[in-house]
Amino acid sequence: MSVVDRQEWDVVVVGAGGAGLRAAIEARERGARTAVICKSLFGKAHTVMAEGGIAAAMGNVNAGDNWQVHFRDTMRGGKFLNQWRMAELHAQEAPQRVWELETWGALFDRTKDGRISQRNFGGHEYPRLAHVGDRTGLELIRTLQQKIVALQQEDHRETGDYESRLKVFQECTVTRVLKDGRQVSGVFGYERESGRFFVLQAPAVVIATGGIGKSFKVTSNSWEYTGDGHALALLAGAPLLNMEFVQFHPTGMVWPPSVKGILVTESVRGDGGVLRNSDGKRFMFDYVPDVFKDKYAETEEEADRWYDDPDHNRRPPELLPRDEVARAINAEVKEGRGSPHGGVFLDVSTRMPAEVVQRRLPSMYHQFKELADVDITAEPMEVGPTCHYVMGGIAVDSDTAAARGVPGLYAAGEVAGGMHGSNRLGGNSLSDLLVFGRRAGLHAAQYAAEQAGRRPRLDDLQVDSAAAEALRPFSAEAEVEEPSGGPPENPYTLHQELQQTMNDLVGIIRREPEMKQALEKLAELRVRARRAGVEGHRQFNPGWHLALDLRNMLLVSECVARAALERTESRGGHTREDHPSMDSKWRAVNLLCTLADPTGGLAATDPVRGQIVLERETTEPIRPDLLALFEKEELVKYLAEEELSE
Ligand code: FAD
Fold first, then answer.
1. Is the pLDDT of residue 175 over 90?
2. How large is the ipTM?
3. Of 431, 495, 540, 627, which residue has the fewest beta carbons closer than 10 angstroms?
4. Could you give the residue ranges of the DSSP H alpha helices within 204-349?
């Protein structure tokens, strides 16, 4: 087999978004030699696209805020399916992580008295999002990168080599986590430009690869979000948790077609933007569900007063959690009250002066001007739901971020499950990745130090089979000779069919027959994907890259479809038309996906049968002191009777 470059590190971090960089900084500061790998250019990750801000209960704008209120909001947003210990740690530690960013050079917008400013967002009781205009993610990544450079300069002064203790491998894709028995031994990947294979040996691997949005046709996600980390963990033997919960952000662009799905930040509504249908009606007042009735305004007058006097008025219903707003928009369009291009209207032009719009929402102003020729200071935007975020992910230990069942494997950020339950609140992702990125880096470094005397062995057979798997698309012609063969398949076509299937059949509103149809289509696509063929050679070959991504997209799509079919209720980011209510019996149920072939050798499984096994597990009871933060009347809406009596 091909000669593969090999290097030894203590901790390998896969992904250079906020979670990956924060993990890498922590691991390096704890003394671990740390490598970071990312699929695109260093600095280009979803984190950089985050607009609205970082949720942290600092209480700068309303002193009533504290971690307990943030915890409550997060649990409500997730409809109580959150891994509660994660929600607790997140609410407690987020402010420290924001202040720490400031000490590393982040420049947040300020309040009049000079504190870090915080803005309103859906589902957050108080103004809580620390922000930098609508370009918060850019500042977050810039700051973390600056910190990495500072650490590398420190290392250079000591060792003469900038990369002796912290090195970034950019434009490299990891395709397998390698193991020594049950334990992690490193990763296998390829350089996207040269196609050269490489192995980084390490006792600890942190997966921080972000989301899965590219498995859906209409999405705010960019090209690299093909569920790689989710698939890497599955293939390494770790379970995925509650994959049915996919967030459809209520406001994506709907026009022109080439930009359909691009995000319109929630800050637009947080700063006063309102949603209207084709009759000009502010329809969200008709969609406040019972569980939120006492917290949201009933009239436009009350909703408008809230912006100036939040202590004596209830919030506008445009600021309900995202799942509620997305469903409402979907219903309005279905009822024939949509905008000309199949969305609804989002208006800031009649709500604030043009110069305020341009100052507070500069990216949105430019985005609409340049991509749709719409001046949002003078006319409304047209918006509709777009696949945005996955709440499901690698099942992890709340405190250490260790992936279940695979010693040495850690996960943080969007790729990890549990924290957000069935629905994430806006702003809670940036804080999640700082809090749990740090924890993952810390525990991965500690684990690696414990393995110092007995580092895991690298298995050459695994390396060979990872290389063979990666080369398979170049020999698709040969596969045609197999009895089950057909013509070689174009990976672009397979991607498109998969995205359309997930969008139409496992999208924002789900029905049993459609999900079954999706599973049948996925089975067909799995068979065809074995013949996904590419021409040419390994030097920058995007067709080959797509062919390799397909394995991951098919795995995560099957997880989403199977889990969505199994959960016969509607909760957060999972809406069943045939089971429209939330069912408290399902509150205590987690759905875990594992690989049908535990050796991770996908070729051995029958592609028609499916590759995923689904199991139910009972969630850990919520600690009584945390339950005591809620009124009993509220808990009754979420918990089953047995849980309440306990
Ligand atoms: P990412 O930032 O997504 O980074 C993933 C990294 O993994 C990348 O470096 C990628 O190249 C790498 N990678 C992936 N696969 C591989 C592989 N196989 N091999 C090697 N590397 C790989 N959240 C908020 O809290 N507030 C907001 O205002 C907000 N706004 C958003 C706006 C947009 C347009 C989008 C898309 C998301 C927004 N979110 C927001 C969500 C948030 O940005 C993401 O959930 C978060 O940034 C994910 O961070 P991460 O570190 O987990 O992964």
1. yes
2. 0.99
3. 540
4. 228-236, 267-270, 300-308, 322-334
Q: Could you read off the pLDDT of 479-511 as tens digits, one per residue?
A: 555 555 678 899 999 999 999 999 999 999 999
Kindly report, residue by residue over 539-596, the tens digit of the pLDDT. 999 999 999 999 999 999 999 999 999 999 999 999 999 999 999 999 999 999 999 8
Delimit the domains of the chain by residue range.
Answer: 5-246+389-450, 251-387
pTM of the model: 0.94
- What are the φ and ψ backbone dihedral angles of 216, each rounded to 5 degrees? -115, 150
From the list 145, 131, 2, the residue with the least C-alpha distance to 58 is: 131
Cβ atoms of 410 and 206 closer than 8 Å: yes
The reply to whether domains 5-246+389-450 and 251-387 share a CATH topology is: no
Pocket of ligand 1, candidates 386, 429, 548: which has the most ligand atoms within 8 Å of its Cβ, to mutate?
Answer: 429
Residue 455: DSSP 8-state: P
**348-377 confidence digits (pLDDT tens):** 999 999 999 999 899 899 999 999 999 999
Give the relative orientation of helices 542-566 and 512-529 as an angle to the nearest 10 degrees.
150
Q: Is the CB of 52 under 6 A from ligand 1?
A: yes
Distance CA 87, CA 188 (A): 33
Q: Is the pLDDT of residue 1 over 50?
A: no
For 358, other C-beta atoms within 10 Å of its C-beta total 15
CB atoms within 10 A of CB 516: 13
Domain 251-387 fold: Flavocytochrome C3; Chain A, domain 1 (3.90.700)
Closest CA to 222 of 232, 210, 233, 231: 210
Instruction: Please state, in angstroms and rounded to a whole number, the distance separating the CA atoms of residues 81 and 422.
Output: 6
Active site residues: 249, 269
Give the atom of ligand 1 at the shortest distance from the alpha carbon of 414.
52
Q: How far is CA 315 from the centre of its chain?
A: 27
User: Any idea which residue has 């208006």 for tokens?
Assistant: 347
Residue 152 tokens, joined: 């590398």
Question: Does residue 39's CB lie within 6 angstroms of at least one atom of ligand 1?
Answer: yes
* Residue 398 half-sphere exposure toward CB, CA atoms < 13 A: 16
Q: Which two tokens stand for residue 399?
A: 């405190």
Q: Of 566, 319, 321, 513, nearest to 422 (Cα)?
A: 321
Q: In this predicted structure, what is the pLDDT of residue 643?
A: 82
Provide the 10 A C-beta neighbour count for residue 181. 9
247 lines ligand 1 (CB under 6 A): no
Assigned token pair, 257? 């077609």
Q: Which CATH superfamily is domain 5-246+389-450 in?
A: FAD/NAD(P)-binding domain (3.50.50.60)
Token pair for 525: 């696509």
